[in-house]
Amino acid sequence: MHKVYIKTFGCQMNEYDSERMAGILSGAGYTITQDEHDADYIIVNTCSVRQHAEERAISFIGAASKKHKVIVAGCMAQRLQDDIIKRFPGVKAVVGTFNFAKIAEIIKEEKRRVYAGEEQTDVFNIRPKKEGEIRGFTTVMQGCDNFCSYCIVPYVRGRERSRDKDSILEELGEMGKMGYKEVMLLGQNVNSYFDRKNSVNFSGLLREAVKVDGIKRIKFMTSHPKDLSDELIETVAAEPKLARHFHLPLQSGSDRVLKLMNRKYTAGHFMGRVEKIRELIPGCSITTDILVGFSGEEDADFLQTVQMAEKIKFDAAYIFKYSVRKGTAGEKMEDSVNEKVKLERLNNILELQKKISENMASANIGREMDAIICAPGRADRGLLEAVTDTNKTVLIPAGSGKIGDTVRVRVTGARRVMLEGEVI
């Protein structure tokens, strides 16, 4: 049987899809290799959310397809389809976001073609897992109905589809038995989750999920600010197994730009959600996404974003400069902010957030918190890495426990955004 190497670009959803493809292929007799040079086939699981992610994937595809049989999967494959086949003679197949469940059949067929129609298999029920893992993912819903003007996701992932609650709980139970200690529930907008058959919303799902044996911590992303309910915040506050962390994308602090982005909330609404989280969940970490240089963004709009970041003090932020995505509503808008200004704004807010993140990390010194030991220290083999219930990495001395243990940690220092601690 062929050896297959999988290269993943993009978000946790893509990582999870790659895990599922690896499981499908292993079950069909293929060998998954970690060495791309040893592979007969290379699957490139791509992302289309930002131009830079596509450029990196295209560069990798170009190099890999000169020496290997390459299959391109994921969001960029769904978006570009025939263009990829035409541009890269070494690409043997293009597999869209609805068709990766057929990956073993596609390799076996050895046909040079595009597979990008509607899915034929219930992808929610494809859930192979790795033995010996501590942390993992599971998808609770896919797709998006929000159609933000800069975003390609609804076009490449489709409309919102929520997974049956019982299927999710069954998978979590399997993961608990296999030794998983921490699971992240994934969705483009988890707040929109609703199992119509059982009349269960996302808060209801979480209240059931925390009862699963073996799993010590449950996280989730991403939350859309317009749909973040009091009920969800109260559920996180009430359930010790739920991580005290929200990833809540701001994108802009300007109401005018938020309207252009079709985000459907105001800066004031966003601030109200943050205040509610911090009122009910003291010490909760909040991370965000910020997009600078969107079409029509003026200096005053950017200043409002800076002021929001200064006031809220996010624990971390993923910050990007805007690039037009073909096929989105933003493509029809004039990209009025020149690249130099975009870059200046990007560097400005990156430097600001770096200082805020370091200060937020240092503010943890002296605090005690629960953490799950997840890995040996990457930079220092005399340490272990543990993840706190606020989703922060803390380095603790080797010998403090074994992988998978939950320990009580006192924070003693901070290395930029990474914490140092001792087990008590």
Shape: globular
Unreliable residue stretches = none
Task: Give the helix/strand class.
Answer: alpha/beta
Adjacency order of strands in the biggest sheet: 2-1-3-4-5-6
Number of beta-strand segments: 21
Query: In which range does the helix fraction lie?
Result: 25-40%
CATH topology of the domain at 129-243: Transcription Regulator spoIIAA
What's the N-to-C terminus distance? 50 Å
Q: Name the CATH architecture of the domain at 129-243.
A: 2-Layer Sandwich
Query: How is the main sheet built?
Result: 6 strands, parallel
> Percent of residues in beta strands?
15-25%
The radius of gyration over CA amounts to 22 Å
Give a concise summary:
It is built from 13 helices and 21 strands. Strand 1, helix 1 (about 10-25) and strand 2 form a beta-alpha-beta unit.
Kindly list the characteristics that best describe this protein:
424 residues, alpha/beta, Rossmann fold, OB fold (Dihydrolipoamide Acetyltransferase, E2P), six-stranded parallel sheet, 13 helices, globular
Structure notes:
- The chain has 424 residues and is of the alpha/beta class.
- Among the domains are: 3-115, Methylthiotransferase, N-terminal domain (Rossmann fold), CATH 3.40.50.12160; 129-243, Transcription Regulator spoIIAA (2-Layer Sandwich); 368-423, Nucleic acid-binding proteins (OB fold (Dihydrolipoamide Acetyltransferase, E2P), Beta Barrel).
- It has 13 helices and 21 strands.
- It has helices at residues 12-27, 51-64, 75-80, 82-87, 103-109, 153-157, 165-178, 202-209, 230-238, 255-261, 267-280, 299-312, 339-362, and strands spanning 3-8, 31-32, 41-46, 69-74, 91-95, 113-115, 135-139, 141-142, 161-162, 182-186, 194-195, 200-201, 217-221, 245-247, 285-292, 316-321, 368-376, 383-388, 393-397, 406-415, 418-423.
- The chain has a six-stranded parallel sheet with strand order 2-1-3-4-5-6, with helices on both faces. A five-stranded mixed barrel has the order 17-18-19-21-20. Strands 7-10-13 form a three-stranded parallel sheet, sandwiched between helices.
- Strand 1, helix 1 (12-27) and strand 2 form a beta-alpha-beta unit.
- Helix 12 runs parallel beside helix 13 (339-362).
- The longest helix is centred in the last third of the chain and has 24 residues, at 339-362.
